[in-house]
Amino acid sequence: MLKSDLVAALVKRKGVTDAQAAAVIDTVFADMTTALCAGQGIEIRGFGAFRVKDYGGYQGRNPKTGGRST
Predict the structure, then answer these.
(1) Residue-number span of the structural domain to which 29 is assigned
(2) CATH code assigned at 50
(3) pTM of the entire structure?
(4) Residues 6+ away with beta carbon under 8 Å from 69
C-alpha cells in the first residue's frame, strides 16, 4: 500500500479533501518518526507496536561462493 492509497481511502471514508487527508497522514507519520528517533515506543492498539532496537552486526556469507563478508 502506498501513501496515495491511504490518502484515497481517507478521502473515500471520511469525505475530506485530498489535501486534508495528505496533511493528516503526513502529521501522523512525522510524529511517529519523531517519537521513534527520541527513543520512545509507539503502541497502536489493534494494529501493532513499534520501537527502535539496536543489535550487533553479524558476519555474512555469500551462498554462491561460501566466502565471508562484513
Answers:
(1) 3-69
(2) 4.10.520.10
(3) 0.71
(4) 59, 60, 61, 62
